[in-house]
Amino acid sequence: MRLYKLTEQYSQVLDMLNDTEADIQCIKDTLEGLQGDIEDKAINIAKMIKSLDADIAAIKAEEERLYERRKAYENRKNSIKEYLEQQLFIVGVDNIKSATMTVYMKNNAESVKLTESNLQSYPDKYKRYKFDGINKTLLLEDLRAGNIIPGAEITRTKSVVIR
What is the DSSP string of 53-80? Predict the structure, then answer.
């Protein structure tokens, strides 16, 4: 479904864009070869971008729906697996065999259970710290204030806006 009516030539380009196997340079070359002034080209390309935005939104919604469905199945599986484990423990059975499968209880590898909820009480050698990147907002504030920070500079870029 198209959000906007496109001329036949732009409709063909949109079909190429929807084909994820199509070479992007080939698409750009096709756009380059289309007749018309820059205003018409820009408007038609913007229409294609809006159409792709709608496709992206639909795919994202479907991904979220499938993710929720998968999580529901995983939760059900974990719940009945936990139930089975409890029942086997209650009756003291460690091994059940049938013609098609075997169900058994196994001893897992040793692991550590933390009994202290205050993680600061553990010695530093057991603590892990994660570096998740540079605080660019703070960097920008300091650069704007006139501070010189090696390896950082203020830049301004441009982007296309389609309304």
Answer: HHHHHHHHHHHHHHHHHHHHHHHHHHHH
